[in-house]
Amino acid sequence: MSSITNWLMVAIVATSLVGNVFAIQCYQCESGQNSKCGLRFEPEESMKIDCSSSKPPRHIRNALDGQNMEATGCMKQTLESKLGGIYIARSCYFGDLTNQVVGCQIDPNDVLVYLDRCDVCTSDLCNTSSTVTPIAIFILGIYSLTRWLF
After folding, report:
1. Is the overall model pTM greater than 0.85, yes or no?
2. What start-end ranges are recorded for coiled-coil regions in this protein (predicted)?
């Protein structure tokens, strides 16, 4: 592979990563307040949020102290109520994408639910289902496209 191709690939990936990290849009809703946010997701324009204008939830701010406070992705949390029932929460994700312990945690004051599953993704409006596309697949796609073109 030529050095021009290598530099082109690095530039494309870097641009994509910067765009995804700092200007990501996600769906934000909770199925407890909006039935269209549930397992059968029916997206609406009003559910879209620009994560660059959001702040991390209060309960994870201390854990993120000293780290990047910008949204790094989108998430879909599947919560189970201790009283019965499943709830879905979609929102911006804050924290390390490789270690989701902090970013996926729920508010400890909410004693009626527990986290069943947390899916994190990094492209715009990607938190529609439990099938999320990790950034590695995106990078692999760009790499493959670059190899095919050059």
Report:
1. no
2. none
Q: Which alpha helices (DSSP H) does the chain contain, by range? A: 3-22, 58-61, 101-104, 135-149
**Residues 145 and 137 sit within 8 Å (Cβ to Cβ):** no
> What does the domain layout of the chain look like in residue ranges?
22-149
pLDDT tens readout for residues 113-126: 999 999 999 999 99
- Integer Cα distance of 47 and 11 in angstroms: 32
Helix%, strand%, coil% for the chain, nearest 5: 35, 25, 40
The full length of the chain comes to 150
Query: Is 22-149 in CATH node 2.10.60.10?
Result: yes
